[in-house]
Design a protein that fits this description.
The chain is built from six helices and no strands. With 88 residues, the protein is mainly alpha-helical. The protein starts with 16 loop residues before the first helix and ends with a helix.
Amino acid sequence: MDKATNDNSTNLPGMSADQVRHLAGPVSDHTIMEVLGETPIAADLEVAVTYARGEGDVADRVGHALSGKSARIYDILMADDVYQVEER
């Protein structure tokens, strides 16, 4: 049996708009469409949201730069009004 078939379903592509909103908060429909355009897995989105909210281990945020999908999703989130307000 292929090991991929035993993976946790939250790590499979094909997230829904509801799942994005659940993890990212009340972001705009445009932001959701952009995030979904990256075909993220839940882990990609969770990392981006954690960085965007300034949460998590500071050493991880400082010592490990975002890359790949998480970095692109982070940029998308930071352009949304929800995350711009939190920065102020």
